[in-house]
Amino acid sequence: MLRFALGPALTLALLAGAAVAAPLAPGTAAFDDFTYSGQDPTDAPLAPGAYANPILKGFYPDPSVTRVGQDYYLVNSTFAWFPGIPVFHSRDLVNWTQIGNAIDRPGQLDFKRLAMSRAVFAPAITEHAGVFYILNTCVDCGGNFLVTARDPKGPWSDPVWLPEIDGIDTSLFFDDDGRAWIVNNGPPQGPSRYDGHRAIWIQEYDPKAGKMVGPRSVLVDGGVDPATKPIWIEGPHILKVDGRYYLTAAEGGTAEGHSQVVLRADKATGPYTPYAGNPILTQRDLPRDRAHPITSAGHADLVQTQGGDWWATFLAVRPYGDDTYNTGRETFLLPVTWQDGWPVILPPKTAIPYAGPRPRLPAGTAPTIPTTGAFTVRETFDGKALGLDWMTMRIPAGRWWDLQDGALVLRARPDRLGGFEQPSIWARRQQHLNATAETTVRFTPKAAGDRAGIVALQNDAFFYALTVAGGADGRPEVRLEKRAGEKDPVDGAIVARAPLPVAGGEPVRLKITARGGLYDFAYATGDGAWRNLAGDQDGTILSTKVAGGFVGTMLGLYARADGK
């Protein structure tokens, strides 16, 4: 894995080098490289001793963090993308390296034909007596479960299912005597009093038997102030500090009303009293027209450093318009201060900073694959396996990809991007508002429905696909297709097309450029000169506001044969 920017000379060299590559097997597409580059308006040089927010740019929602000695581990949601639940390691809470995926083999879960924002919700990671636990919910694919590992790199166990728990956002807490408790978001006792009325439940868990024991009980009904009809109390975590138990949870939904609240008790099972100064984190009390806003903050998890300081990881978003963002929910970091025995992440009406003083920890090693700031990542596919940050839609039933002679080779199968199927696609996250993704593809289409290239995809119903495809005259063409809702054709409607001045199988370079809510699509052939196919395309269709759900835009490599 190398990191550098592409210039015209390098583009020519790539095209020339690809031209002498080994012949492809029929029905396959080869991608000789993939380059992602991004820079945001807020990516200013850091002052000495500072760190940048977000610490994990792009689609890294619902962070959960834990410390074991001097090591910190963090996990995120991935929903119906696979491999699922990335596991990160850090020594300083700033530099994060992905070391594994907790859901990394088909036998663990079955995502079926689920929508991309179903399946793997809000994981929570903890460690006890040398065993790491990740609790999670597979929504519409089995319910609540936990997986374990002795080494957080994996392998992680097959799921241990928890059928007694009805709801989502499970989290495990071990008391000083080793007694274990699971808290989660679930339906309230009795009928819901209003839309979004939820409760936080607790029940004891026997780790030796691998099952729930004892009665279930409600810790929080509705939220910290039931009179206001608070919505979607979720993402609970319990921590014990100075003999008291603190329950933190998100409240207000995951949009602009999102927040974090805290309650306190003398026993793990309560009763819990809410902090009078709640919420301890929100951005909903700030002007919507402020410059470079960070919004929708919440779903926090607190961790104490070995030096005694407290920090919080949490999700938030960076919109480029009226609550429109394509980068998904991202992971942020802020210090926690204790005020009169209560943890506070941010005072009211305080904007989340894009930079701040680093934690008082020894500097960690910068990751090979950057996660924050401006950066360029170039993949040459010369390893034995794809990087841990590459994902595909749902769980493959068989292997349709390979790494051969410095290329990612995909078998062009009938499964479609918009068909709620398992298409031949490997993708990585769009991590900046302003970004480019480029690749060199070699593909010989045999029919008009055959295509291979690069995509920008939010889900099955909202995507752009820039591909080398079968033309009407039997010669290949470069084609841009767009799907902006389920009423559009499954493969997308054709936005633009142009005949290619090369024969099938010769290298073609494809590029997607994101500029906030606008996307440009270009291609290059043997002379290396970029040709604009379609510019100023509506990128808001890739935003969460338009497409819905909880994921972010993915930039990927894709191949399909129409199967005729």
From TrEMBL:
Residues 378-561 form the Beta-xylosidase C-terminal Concanavalin A-like domain. The lineage of its organism: Bacteria, Pseudomonadati, Pseudomonadota, Alphaproteobacteria, Caulobacterales. Transmembrane segments: none annotated. Keywords: Glycosidase, Hydrolase, Signal. It comes from Caulobacter sp. 602-2. The active site is at D62 (proton acceptor), E234 (proton donor). InterPro entries: ConA-like_dom_sf, GH43_C2, Glyco_hydro_43, Glyco_hydro_beta-prop_sf, Glycosyl_Hydrlase_43. This is Glycoside hydrolase family 43 protein. It holds the Pfam family GH43_C2. GO terms for molecular function: hydrolase activity, hydrolyzing O-glycosyl compounds. It comes from the Bacteria. CDD domains: GH43_XynB-like (cd18617). Residues 1-21 form the signal peptide. One of its GO terms (biological process) is carbohydrate metabolic process. Belongs to the glycosyl hydrolase 43 family.
